[in-house]
Amino acid sequence: MRNRFPSSRPAGQRATISDVAAAAGVSKATVSKFLGGNKNYYIASETRERIAKAIEDLQFAPNAIAQGLSNRRTDTIGVIVASITNPFYPELIAGVEEALGGSEYTLLLGSTDEQPAKEAALVRSMLQRRVDGLIMAAVTMDDAEVSRLVDTDVDVVLASRGLDTTLADTVVIDNLTGARQAVEHLLGHGHRRIAHLAGPADVVPFRYRIEGYREAMADAGLDGDERLVASGNPAEAMTALLTLPDPPTAVFVANDRMAIEVLEFCAGRGIEVPQELAVVGFDNVWVGRLSGVGLTSVDSKARAVGRKAAEVLAGRIRARHADTVQLPAPPERTVLQPELVIRRSCGCVAGEKDDDAPDRSFF
Amino acid sequence: MRNRFPSSRPAGQRATISDVAAAAGVSKATVSKFLGGNKNYYIASETRERIAKAIEDLQFAPNAIAQGLSNRRTDTIGVIVASITNPFYPELIAGVEEALGGSEYTLLLGSTDEQPAKEAALVRSMLQRRVDGLIMAAVTMDDAEVSRLVDTDVDVVLASRGLDTTLADTVVIDNLTGARQAVEHLLGHGHRRIAHLAGPADVVPFRYRIEGYREAMADAGLDGDERLVASGNPAEAMTALLTLPDPPTAVFVANDRMAIEVLEFCAGRGIEVPQELAVVGFDNVWVGRLSGVGLTSVDSKARAVGRKAAEVLAGRIRARHADTVQLPAPPERTVLQPELVIRRSCGCVAGEKDDDAPDRSFF
DNA sequence: CTGAAAGCGCTAACAA
DNA sequence: TTGTTAGCGCTTTCAG
């Protein structure tokens, strides 16, 4: 195997710009200009060739760390999600990657496992690593913390879990409307006792989903029974709900993760879904599409949210690095519309309205 | 809100070690020693306090990029997976994070979408970013490419997709045995016409799964019918298989992603699983556990593989950075044993042997 | 115990 | 068109 490092440095050590300069008989500056590509530096085509050859010979690739230090930008963006194993987030990440497609950005990833301490540590770590921007798809921080974050020199966009804040760019879906749609659909099926299995109240979207539930119930003149709002471990919550004197005939669950557990709970107890209990989830994770699952759910557009978040962030970064110095534009808030996807678990006839592309593969 | 940057630099600019040094009335070198923590530098406790105060006042956090340049290590490890939306990989990533738990490592993530070109680009990008190590859970490279990669100064471990190579540390499961178990189980159910839906042949594990299938069939004196080995789009492949003159009564599918599509295909065609067609998958992705799915599958231990890969890698990095210079140990190959997890789709009675912890949440 | 100085690999004025 | 020089922010000898 021929030695790929003909320079004087020991094997396994990568060539530097100085090696290239020496090999090409030019200065580092010239090589650097050659690398810069974009800026219209003038450099003799003959020199250009010599440099290209040296680079090729030495298998040189610029050290991005050194470039980062000098350029004050790393072409890296951080993505912090709540739970990498919840299929909602890989989908969101895929959206981010999609949007960043051709660009030179690389993703620094972190999963908080829903732990605020881990979230804080990840933010710190990414800031120290000088990411150019940060997409937060896990936010348990309060406004003060967000504002401190926004005060730094990295651009931040809050995705999906976004707070109410107007401090930072935000990409969310309309959780309130989504929740209303779900509950209204259940009302349309004739249900009157509709429960809500809520998510942790320290996560903003869950608060809106509760509110949407309450509004829809109130509009139907069915509000007031707080016993119908449960939370915590799905199995336990369902047990409590179903042993109520006047148990619910339907439940709107705050996300699909929990909704699937409700389905499993019912399967385990021999409770027929949707006959004995109708179930509607939230997120429309791909699993719900499986014919053996058939979960009706509000699509929270994970991929689109990720894509949009990345676009907004890229725009910010571009603006920041633009030559023309100007005040940053005020935070931008994008609200995507969710969409109720109807399947079996709500009581609709199978296939009635399920318009999923049947040939699309699952993952 | 009080200004968090009392130094002279403009808001939004982070304090540097020089700012701290100035504020504490010491030199950068001393501050750096203070930061180093571990090495037993002697520094007066009074100075120590002044520095600590300055750091606190200035909200100083060292620039990891600059540290990286100086230290020649970034405390970052790259993870390249084949497809972030295939639940197998988030699980593997979770294993990596688990193992890296307390340490200061951060993950640089990339998903290749099974495209060799993207894989190459990601490797390049991560190398340029000077990751300390690389976990490749997507390898379509050949030995030559791997060897070139191993020749660099980053430690590489091949996880799950590992080649046959002995050039790099590898953590895999015993795919051949796993496949044999699957097929033997089907044989035990009395099946004689067992098909195999194979994965892309350029991915090593899939080749072993085919081989395991062939061996098991041969051992049962059932080899020879190559028409039973299909590949490509699951729906099309199944259609072809089922229109054979002597169609299979069971199919061993190379991974759960495809197995699930087979299940959907059957549901769509009204083909009863397992009565008309028994199905066994590979990976034991959590989805298969759902009561509405019940997919019998060979567990490929994604989490354990991720964990082990991270441990091996961390060990390598530690060794490389150790003061005592020594020849690197030869590549280490870890082979984890897969495990057949039995559910409905193979023909076993539901619940018969499904020993999943029933209360474990899904994701 | 502390500091001066050199250097990690690259970029960006500014000269030449 | 090319080279010189001075950093980017931190670490690490090596002298005090």
The number of strands of chain A is 12
Secondary structure category of chain A = alpha/beta
CATH topology of the largest domain in chain A: Rossmann fold
State the largest interface.
A-B, 66 and 66 residues
Helix content of chain A: 40-55%
Oligomeric grouping of the chains: homodimer
Q: Strand portion of chain A, in percent? A: 15-25%
Global morphology of chain A: elongated
Separation of termini of chain A? 40 Å
The main β sheet of chain A shows up as:
6 strands, parallel
Uncertain spans of chain A, ≥5 residues at pLDDT below 50?
1-8
Spell out the CATH superfamily of the largest domain in chain A: Response regulator
CATH class of the largest domain in chain A: Alpha Beta
Figure out the total of helices of chain A: 12
Average pLDDT for all residues of chain A: 90
Query: Radius of gyration of chain A from the CA trace?
Result: 26 Å
H-E string of chain A: HHHHEHEHEHEEHEHEHEHEEHEE
Protein name (chains A, B): LacI family transcriptional regulator
Pfam family, one (chains A, B): Peripla_BP_3
InterPro entries (chains A, B): HTH_LacI (IPR000843), LacI/GalR-like_sensor (IPR046335), Lambda_DNA-bd_dom_sf (IPR010982), Peripla_BP_I (IPR028082)
Domain HTH lacI-type (chains A, B): 15-71
